[in-house]
Amino acid sequence: MKKTSTRLADGRELIYYDSGDNTVRDAVDRRPLEPTVTSSQVRRDPLLGDSVAIASHRQGRTYHPPANECPLCPSQGGRLSEIPDSSYDVVVFENRFPSLAGDSGRCEVVCFTSDHDSSFADLTEEQAGLVLEAWTDRTAELSHLPSVEQVFCFENRGEEIGVTLGHPHGQIYAYPFTTPRTALMLRSLAAHKEATGGQNLFDDVVARELAEGDRIVLETESWVAFVPYAAHWPYEVHLYPKRRVPDLLGLDEEARTEFPQVYLELLRRFDRIFDGPGGGKEGDGEPPTPYIAAWHQAPFGALAEFEGVSRDDFALHLELFTIRRTSGKLKFLAGSESGMSVFINDVPPEAAAQRLREVASS
Fold it and tell me: Is the dihedral of CA 209, 212, 216, 219 positive or negative?
């Protein structure tokens, strides 16, 4: 992998990640951009104890542009975009409309490919491996910023999720605090460790899934993917490396080599959930499955409030889920979910796992 860092016309950082060592990246951003001005701030909710990012400048962000005006495609001819070069493998750059900025963290965009009409599932294993290297490198770099406590790599896919740019891309949020969801995991981790005399909760969860087997979706030497026992979403898969590590930096070479094959297979199965045998006629012509893919990594800040827990106790894992519950119908977060954070799942996890096994690549 070759990494080339440059600056856009308004001062934001842009980084090319290339699979070829001889690739030269010297294109200049020729757009007449003014310096980026943001008003992001983080406010703490005194009742819930969580944090909310206030970012009013995002109201003016790019919204569903036509394909020939996509800001994530490479610059070609007279059309200038966020990427100055005429082609690229993987690109990461500072978000022009960040939810977090300055002392409140940082937001980056990750473009998986220059091909506007593809998706992550269409990537080759080499391309997917390069994205993994980019995620890992950005996690390492962002963790050193004084304002950053946790790094979150994720992809929102599909208009139903709220995506406003159709080009295949994801994002990285570098938070100035430990996120509420991670804090819940850490509290459960600490409580389990105390109750069991030192056992690791993540290890026990994975061991249970492997022992029971009916929720396993796929398994390799280095990875296991399963629908969790108490899945919140109709189709939800958790992907764990079998050797527990706290973050992407901890993955060994074997796990890195296997990841592209495993992850691409999961994404391709997600696109087949509502089609084909077992999917019913109503699945014919179903649009691509909307999903969120979220990497959970240990915070880089102090964990003193979680007594007896260290970073190494946390288990890196990816959570992949769709908001579609059946063909043509979405799972909405209504009264119970949005008002009380109590999820109601219409699809038994065992049935979801069975369906995801049925649509395996032949």
Answer: positive
Residues designated catalytic: 169
Could you give the CA distance from residue 181 to residue 347 in angstroms, rounded to a whole number?
23
| Per-residue model confidence as pLDDT tens digits over 240-249 | 999 999 999 9
**Radius of gyration, CA atoms only, the chain:** 21
Q: If you write DSSP's letter for every residue of 112-147 in order, what string do you get?
A: --S-TT--GGGS-HHHHHHHHHHHHHHHHHHTTSTT
Burial class (CB in 10 A: 0-12, 13-18, 19+), 13: middle
Dist CA 193 CA 213 (whole Å): 24
Indicate whether 28 pLDDT > 80: yes
Hey, CA dihedral for 174, 180, 41, 162, is it positive or negative? positive
Q: Are 223 and 318 in contact (CB under 8 A)?
A: no
Nearest-CA neighbor of 103 among 27, 162, 41? 41
Q: What distance in Å separates the CA atoms of residue 293 and residue 169, rounded to the nearest whole number?
A: 11
Summarize pLDDT for 88-97 with one digit per residue, the tens.
Answer: 999 999 999 9
Tens of pLDDT, residue by residue over 129-188, are: 999 999 999 999 999 999 999 999 999 999 999 998 999 999 999 999 999 999 999 999
Which tokens go with 228? 């969790």
Mean pLDDT of 267-282: 73
Which helix (H) or strand (E) segment holds residue 207: the answer is helix 201-212
Entry pTM: 0.94
